[in-house]
Amino acid sequence: MVEDFLKQYAMLIADHPEKVRTELIKNSDHTEIVIFADKFDTGKLIGKNGRMINAIKTVIIGYKAKDPVTYKITVKAADA
């Protein structure tokens, strides 16, 4: 559910939404969600001084009331 939300949200922000994809990586102590986007969209997703990604993380923290999983969010440039 969190992964789907992040993908849809990133697609709304990105100039090239067709290139946005997410990957879920489960570790023993946390779950990492990697958002892959066009290299020009990564800056938009991170935002000035990291404000956009921090806002996204704040929304995810609110979800922890329902699901006690710790999420780590990473934005990376998609390969071609």
From TrEMBL:
InterPro entries reported in the protein's UniProt record: KH_sf_prok-type, KhpA
List the GO molecular function terms: RNA binding
What stretches pass through the bilayer?
none
**Record flagged with keyword Kinase:** no
Task: Identify the keywords attached in UniProt to this record, alphabetized.
Answer: Cytoplasm, RNA-binding
Question: Does this UniProt record's set of keywords contain Metal-binding?
Answer: no
Q: What is this protein called?
A: KH domain RNA binding protein YlqC
Query: What is the source species?
Result: Campylobacter hominis (strain ATCC BAA-381 / DSM 21671 / CCUG 45161 / LMG 19568 / NCTC 13146 / CH001A)
